[in-house]
Amino acid sequence: MAKPARTAITPTRSQDYPEWYQQVVRAADLAENSPVRGCMVIKPWGYTLWEKMQRALDEKFKDTGHVNAYFPLFIPKSYLEKEAQHVEGFAKECAVVTHSRLELNDEGKLVPAAPLEEPLIVRPTSETIIGEMYAKWVQSYRDLPVLINQWANVVRWEMRTRLFLRTAEFLWQEGHTAHATEAEAWEETRKMLGVYADFAENYMAMPVWQGEKTAGERFPGAVSTLCIEAMMQDRKALQAGTSHFLGQNFAKASGIQFQSEQGQLEYAWTTSWGVSTRLVGGLVMTHSDDDGLIAPPRLAPLHVVILPVLIKEESRAEVLEYCHKLREELRNVWWHDQKLDVHIDDRDLRGGDKMWQWVKKGVPLRVEVGPRDIAKDSLFVGRRDTGEKGPVPRAEFVATIGERLDEIQQNLLNRARAFRDEHTHVINSEQDFYDFFTPKNQEEPEIHGGFALAHWNGDESITERIQQDLKVTVRCIPFEDNPEPGTCIFTGQPSKQRVVWAKSY
Amino acid sequence: MAKPARTAITPTRSQDYPEWYQQVVRAADLAENSPVRGCMVIKPWGYTLWEKMQRALDEKFKDTGHVNAYFPLFIPKSYLEKEAQHVEGFAKECAVVTHSRLELNDEGKLVPAAPLEEPLIVRPTSETIIGEMYAKWVQSYRDLPVLINQWANVVRWEMRTRLFLRTAEFLWQEGHTAHATEAEAWEETRKMLGVYADFAENYMAMPVWQGEKTAGERFPGAVSTLCIEAMMQDRKALQAGTSHFLGQNFAKASGIQFQSEQGQLEYAWTTSWGVSTRLVGGLVMTHSDDDGLIAPPRLAPLHVVILPVLIKEESRAEVLEYCHKLREELRNVWWHDQKLDVHIDDRDLRGGDKMWQWVKKGVPLRVEVGPRDIAKDSLFVGRRDTGEKGPVPRAEFVATIGERLDEIQQNLLNRARAFRDEHTHVINSEQDFYDFFTPKNQEEPEIHGGFALAHWNGDESITERIQQDLKVTVRCIPFEDNPEPGTCIFTGQPSKQRVVWAKSY
User: Fold this and answer.
1) B67–A110 C-beta distance less than 8 A
2) What does the pLDDT average to over A106-117?
3) B396 Rama class: left (phi>0) / alpha (psi -120 to 50) / beta
4) Chain B positions in Cβ-Cβ contact with residue A87 (cut-off 8 Å)
5) Closest to B91 in 3D by CA, of B125, B66, B48
6) Do B74 and A67 touch (CB under 8 A)?
7) Is the pLDDT of residue B1 over 60?
8) Coil, strand, or helix at residue A239?
9) Which residues are CB-neighbours of A407 under 8 A, at least 6 positions away?
10) Taking a C-beta distance cutoff of 8 angstroms, is the pair A217, A295 a contact?
11) For residues B448 and B464, what is the distance between their CA atoms, to the nearest angstrom?
12) Residue B427 clears pLDDT 60, i.e. is over it
């Protein structure tokens, strides 16, 4: 193994990708495990990423006619049982509230008291409780569509957890809509997947495949699940958002019925769609390097950090004043309908230590200002994505800050797309398929394979075998305007189109 | 009893205030009870009020140096037990998670399975779990202050619930800060109370008393609780926000220790402060009238609703086009750093029905536009707070919209302040005190009394007796620059200053 260059993060991606991820999250101070099993603490830097995601998505939801509301955290057990597949999907991993009080027992120990008549489940998702309300609200076709989104916490009692990617409690949004016709509900399902894809590419700078899940990977109770799938730098797939066409399954389970324009009593057609704090993990794994986080400017907690060089006491006041003026100039720049977020780090720390902290936190642009720079009215600018550094006249920097940020954003997307394309292979035989997903190098066991585009005849027994052999699954049946038919590489039978295979999170 | 004028809400405030409140909430479509005991569904119109409150408060928190983060929903039982008063305050009403799975039993019924080693409490407040994290994060005085806020849901198993005012689950923010010195923590406690008071008066148009709680009304575990108290239209007090100085109690319970600048190991000083969706109830009860909600413009879900008069088919297109142009003009107006929220209601409903829906929803300004108005380039404007109606030239309306909204905002505050002052009485004898809080008119049993400013010597046995006799408590010991000493009206003993007494929510 070649001697690695010195990096801010140990180990590097190629040495140990899962551990690299944990270290990037730690070094950027995004989140950490809490003493409550499986529950994370989202620290301010990580939470700000989530807040910026929320703001951008919320605007898109509102632009597409949705409003926010809030439904109960608890779901009565009997509600979960109304949809057979749904309860099967979630019963195995749910937090059950059984008591409403703690009381001292005879031994002086505080124990659960006042048992509930019916246990309550901490929501793993809200189709059933929201369906119950929609059944009350919807009487006539005039009450449709119902287009509601909820920002909330949910709990799924996962055994193996990983910060952001899989946690027992996570934050998410869940859209729940009800429509008068199947066609409208299908349109909504596709539209919201499009919103997610647009957000992933244009805000997260994370290219995605859009497509449909196979039956085995569907949301419990859905007729069809659409998804966006992104490639991480270990070439595994991350399911980054899902949009479910629920048909009339949940409407029947909850009794969402309406009088149609023709006067008939019909069941509504419903959808649900969601993205979660998992996206923060996806953002980290798409862009970060061996020096830590790289935040795409559209979602970066800070756009610019200003680092005053405060070595000499006599120039201290002048340098700080110059920095404050610069910050005000930058803060007044509007970029994509937002004011820029700019911070001056004037802590008493060694310049190098300070700089590396901001490198690890992924701030797109770092600006160092010392007495000599001020003399030339110039700044020493460091760009996080490319590592480029050099002097830029202050006026030019302020005038072009928006373009610089756009360029960084575009570069990150281009880079991620090139990486994904490089590791996406058209595969035409079972042997090539097995080779593709089998590590060649025992020293780098984690990084190999990628996305395989291969024909498959739809037989679920094949996918089960492939999952057992290789831990590889069909990530999606991609949307294609002109799907090209072919021959299943596993069975030799006809296939309608190539599907996307990968290992996944 | 006089024959009441016809009103949109039945009963009126004077007939049955609690029921009037429920009906206003229902008519404005703000929230409703869910099938989960004590948990409400916050509907889109109510949630938008909360979102606007969140945005305004969040900005104020950030302006005062705070950042947001997120901590686990669950608190291990042993954490709650660390602070003796704290656990006593919350153990009686908490949701206890005891299992992590549902499983079919022998009778084919789904029952809780996989019991947890230690029960988890759904957070009623987060001092203990956040304290645990701060103990890890804080090592040195350089790590202080920690200034973090969390937006979250919390659960307190209340037996008697009321939409927004008291619900088992509610949404809130909880600030949690840690400081190196007692003085700093006190400053923070007072500063955040000031933020709440400013928000209440300038956004909610709800005047408040600021002061300190008596020992009996303190937050469990706090050294001191500061609060803002508002008067509702039934003259009862609503505690609208609290800011707690926690001293070193929670730092000791959680072990938040740091190396001081002098090298000594010391416990941090902590604070916590919160407001909740209860504020939505307070807003409703402060301003609404017998025709429904009146939303203060700074928080109104919509500032202006445009009601096209679409009776004649031949003018329909022209009227709608005019309305859309008007909406665009208004939407481009900036008012207090926000764009205006403007909606065109073009539903096929009778004009009167439509108008009354918006009256009940409390939109500050309604604008009717018909062909005859268009001919004069004029609008028919209705103002929700005063009921004034009349024609206004379009250009003038657009040019003065900001001033109109400011005027409405100011009028609501003035009106609420006048009401509060009218029903705030200086009381100098026990007899007058009992008279003040005893209903005179059996037909209007609910609305009487108000705020009594009376001297009290601080004896908690007095407050217990008063609470039993009259259901009246000390709402706060108000902040006074020059507190005027006097004689306790109950004991004849010396009193440092007058305190605020009232019935309360």
Assistant:
1) no
2) 92
3) alpha
4) 102, 110
5) B125
6) no
7) no
8) strand
9) none
10) no
11) 21
12) yes
B1-18: average pLDDT: 82
Instruction: Show residues of chain B in contact with A93, CB under 8 Å.
Output: 100-101
Whole-angstrom Cα distance, residue A373 to residue A393? 9
Tell me the one-letter amino acid at B178.
Answer: A
- What is d(CA A258, CA A139) in angstroms, rounded to the nearest whole number? 5
For residue A381, what is the enclosing H or E element? Answer: strand A378-383
CB-CB under 8 Å, B153 with A152: yes
Residue of A nearest to B112 (CA): A96
List, for residues A7-31, the tens digit of each pLDDT value: 999 999 999 999 999 999 999 999 9
Q: Which of B72, B80, B95 sits opposite A100 (nearest CB)?
A: B95
Q: For residue B465, give the 3-state DSSP assignment.
A: helix
Q: Sorting pLDDT into bands at 50, 70 and 90, what band is B446?
A: low
Residue showing tokens 């939470």: A47
Cβ–Cβ under 8 Å, residues B41 and B31: yes
State the Cα–Cα distance between residues A450 and B163, nearest whole angstrom: 52
| A130: amino acid identity, one letter | I
Residues in contact with A75: Cβ distance below 8 Å, sequence separation at least 6, in sequence order: A120, A121, A122, A123, A126, A128, A129, B36
**How would you label B262-295 residue by residue, b for 16+ Cβ within 10 Å and e otherwise?**
eeeebbbbbbbbbbbbbbbbbbbbbbbbbbbbbb
Instruction: Tokens 């008393």: give the residue.
Output: B209
Q: By the 8 A CB rule, do B170 and B278 touch?
A: yes
Q: For residue B451, is it left (φ>0), alpha (ψ between -120 and 50) or beta?
A: beta
Predicted model pTM: 0.96
- Interatomic CA distance for residues A269 and A245, integer angstroms: 8
A92 touching B, CB under 8 A? yes
**What is the least distance, in Å, from the CA of A339 to any CA of chain B?**
12
* Interface confidence (ipTM) of the complex: 0.96
Distance CA A196, CA A189 (A): 11
Distance CA A308, CA A375 (A): 14
Strand partners, A500: A453, A476
Please indicate if any CB of chain A lies within 8 Å of the CB of B36: yes
Which of A41, A42, A97 is facing B95, going by the closest CB pair?
A97
The 10 Å Cβ neighbour count of residue B114 is: 15
Amino acid at residue number B146: V
| Closest residue to B68, CB basis, from A47, A70, A112 | A47
CA distance A248 to chain B (A): 22
Query: Which of these ranges, A497-501, B167-171, B479-483, has the smallest mean pLDDT?
Result: B479-483
State the Cα angle at B45 between B286 and B50, rounded to 5°.
65
**CB distance B273 to B192 below 8 Å:** yes
B93 interfaces chain A, CB cutoff of 8 Å: yes
CB atoms A75 and B36 under 8 Å: yes
* Largest distance between two CA atoms of chain B: 84
Nearest one of B179, B129, B128, B174 to B149, comparing CA atoms = B174
Are B101 and A91 in contact by the 8 Å Cβ rule? The answer is yes
Query: pLDDT digits over B302-355, tens only?
Result: 999 999 998 888 999 999 999 999 999 999 999 998 899 999 999 988 888 999
DSSP B31: E
Residue B357 distance to chain A (closest CA, Å): 15
Paired tokens of B99: 């299992």
Tokens of A42: 């989202």
Alpha carbon of residue B254 to chain centroid: 30
Would you state the structure tokens that stand for residue A118, as one six-digit string?
Answer: 């019916």
Nearest to B230 by CA among B273, B275, B190: B275
DSSP string, B348-370: SS-HHHHHHHHHHHT-SEEEEE-
The token pair at B89 is 């305050």
- Burial degree of A299 (CB within 10 A; 0-12, 13-18, 19+): buried
